[in-house]
What does this fold into?
Amino acid sequence: MISAMYENGGNTLHRFLDGHEHLAVFPFESQLGTGIANDFLSSLVPIRYRWPEFLAGVTPAEAYEQFWDEELKTLLRVPDRSKFRASGVVMKEADRKAAFADYCARHGVSRANLVAAYFHATFAAWENFDRTGPKTHWVGYNPVQVLDADKIFADFPDGHVIHVVRNPWSGYADTRKRPFPLSLPRYAWTWSLCQHLALTCRGKYAGRFHLVRFEELIADPGAVLGRLLGDIGLPMSERCLSPSFNGAALAEVYPWGTIRSPTPAANLAAARSLSQEEQHSVLDDTRVMVDALGYADFLQGA
It folds into this structure.
């Protein structure tokens, strides 16, 4: 499972991993949240970005509908209104629902099995999915999924979480491109909390929780992905050296997120697009994590 603060490069890593022969990569944001969870983090991030919860006695049909899954369900139900209408995905939702129910019938209904059914059904129903190579791992991406790392590892003890971190200035500059951007203080504080949790989880779940710096990924994807895949127990693949979707190269990472051109120059330019006052304000609210993650000199181009 890939996690990242908003506009921190989660979509970019997702697209870099897309072509790997061993990886079945979910087409869009996984958006596993069901809206049933109600805890002390519920007001912090949208419910679609939380790990799912289900009421006792839930049926497979009910569980399927409770997964938020806005991006894929929109494409399947009202394709003309989907930002991914040109993606080329060929899938019938009836087939996906049938595969979901069949998986639950064979494995039982638990939170872990419902999540597994969600991924299994997606690839079972995806008619033109690039099945090159022996697919051994599912890959999902949900922003700020780091908040629920404990639940993920409880359900999938052999699973891995990869958290992508990007400097907060570029992240905030890109999030302002959204129609309804977070305020600077809320973005900065949420960024800091996510990175604090990521550093905590890297120590708590050594070998299973992995931290990737966006700046290093875009500077040398071969080296970064080679180490990451090796840590997960997979070989490096030449197909991971550039972003792709369903095995086809992408000229830009669009419309998956606001980072269209994942290059060091574009990343630094985004940070420097903020005013001096905004740059200082971001630093004021992120300084502890900025120092901990080695970003203190980022704006100087280091």
About this structure: The two ends are 30 Å apart (CA to CA).
